[in-house]
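Worked problem 6 (solution included).
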Amino acid sequence: MPFLFCLARRLDCPYAILQKILKMRKIDRSLDSPSQCEPDVNVDSLWIIGPRAKGGKRDNSYHGNFVPQIPSDLIRRFTQSDDVVLEPFMGSGTTLYECERLNRKYIGFDINSGIIDLVKRKMVCGYTDFRIHNMDAASKAVDNAIKRDLRDYGRMDADLMIAHPPYFDIIKFTEHECDLSNARSLDEFLKMFKAVISKLLPYVRNNGHIAIVAGDLYRNSEVIPLGFMLMSVVSQIGLCKLKGIVVKDMVGNRAKIGLDALWRKRALRSDYYLFKHEYIFIFRKVK
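Solution. The predicted structure is:
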């Protein structure tokens, strides 16, 4: 740890003593955080990511999953080795696979039993620091599940929550009435999302972080700023400070691959713009 050696020399303090001091969690986080140790962590508000990262368990077979670079960057910046990442909308396991790769502990929920089974089949050996649950992340059963998982990890709370919810009803994931993609209206969707975040937020440690990954909608010839609506929901819950609004390029949309010219022609015939971005809203939990 070259940073510690430099600090020891500057403070005229023996390295061994400084190392013991840094075992204190709060000091360790402020002086030797992953964001300072890893030079490729992105601190810009515009993310041009490019091709989807491949290899390992990563794949692009599930509609609505996000690129692995997003959870990878968030995990490396806001957590350390053995920290706990909490995810209410697990999907095909993108965040889980990054937790495995980066040596973090994981707790995930998804209402889709089929995708839960698929992820479990991938996680058959090696990495064991994960707990996944087939349940509505706003249900009463969540409390017991998280408390049990944290107890297994020897922890009181999680360090980071990553939420990548459905974009309202663009993709129907299940027939379950508690599935956000089955909300009967936008207002109902926002209320369901609020219930999920309100349920999980108490299990994020003070000064821990919450990341919401979201896009917008185009309905009835009008842009619906869904991303900012979700940001507003989290702000209204309280307990959080908005620390960043990241705009991320959206490339390789499966529904539009090979159809760029057609979509451009349609846009020019009308007065709308093609969505080429998504948002990542970063919050820090405060007392």
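Discussion: The two ends are 32 Å apart (CA to CA).
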